[in-house]
Amino acid sequence: MAIRGRSRLSDVVSKHEAAILTDWIKEQLAAVKAADRIGEAELRTECARFLTLLKVALRSDGSHDVSSAAWSETRELLGELSRSRARAGYSPSETAAFVLSLKRPLFDRLRGEIGGDADALADEVWQTTLVLDRLALFTTELHQKSRDEIILRQQQDMLELSTPVVQLWESILALPLIGTLDSARTQVVMENLLQRIVETGASIAIIDITGVPTVDTLVAQHLLKTVAAARLMGADCIISGIRPQIAQTIVHLGVELSSVITKATLADAFVIALQRTGATIGRATKA
Amino acid sequence: MERIPILKMNEFLLVSIQVDMHDRLAMTLQDDLTDRIVRDRARGVLIDISSLEIVDSFIGRMIGNIAAMSRVLDAETVVVGMRPAVAITLVELGLALPGVRTSLNVDKGMELLRSSLARGGNGHRDAGR
Fold first, then answer.
1. Residue B95, number of CB atoms within 10 A of its CB
2. Domains of chain B, earliest start first
3. Which of A129, A244, A282, B25 is the most exposed place for a label (fewest CB within 10 A)?
4. Average pLDDT over every residue of A86-98
């Protein structure tokens, strides 16, 4: 029974390939709004390739086990497809719809071929569903995996991007912090800052927290740790960019920041730092 | 017995820790240094720890103690050349050495000692600032 079913499906696919392809593309264009994101020509190429590979796989493998070697090329194509769609911002269901929308055209053709024999038809439909469902699940899984990879990479990028240490002046460093400070980031920030202090021989570091959305006790503790570590290296720290809201929060939480010089803006902190290093700034008088 | 040498330079004492500090060595250093401060009437102590790679809570506290003792004997202490890894370790251990003055290198440390001596010469008043 299974053997007869398998040959029927692959026969049907071979016989009506062109018609199935047309129906399938029509189905996808109608169902998925993604049509405007992907060109019809491109979609047609992808579908045609998939159908060809499906045909080959169906013919060479009787078990309908999509994880077997006979399906490796089909899996590769689907993998490529879900990765590119994950990057393009498709949802998992939109990606799975690529495979699932093939059901209707296939069922239609199967009915046309063996419509009279209800038992055989039911059997064929079951087999086809099994294969397509497994393939669809496979795409969803891969889609998820590629999305996870993207998120992981972005997290790392953010960690590196968001902790720059810039030299403002001879022996004055600035550390503009953007985003929430957790312990992992504090570690990176601290290491970067101390390393730069050694490299530049800086004696003053300005930590600007304009870009830090909230300061709770934990964040404050992390900040104070960084200040303490910099002090041990012989560099004084100034914390700047404290917004009114944050000043209120700090006081309400009872965080003790009196051991550190704090300034409202980076500009004020810079002036203090310049004074500390013995530099003065003034306007040049025009002759 | 192993000892850490203490060098005299005008009114300052220089200590450079070049070997791994173990507890006995730290105790000996504490004894030697307090003796020398009194004997040489030193006004400042500079401790260079740029070769120190590993530090534990005992050594961290020791450095703090030495600085506090020197201050009692009217000598300003500056710890110079701490490595980033050591600084992070001390902070994580909760030993931020609040009473100790620090500098990045020997040059800046000497500058700090000279300027604080010139400002009034009294370690007490300066440290209380």
1. 20
2. 6-128 (3.30.750.24)
3. A282
4. 82
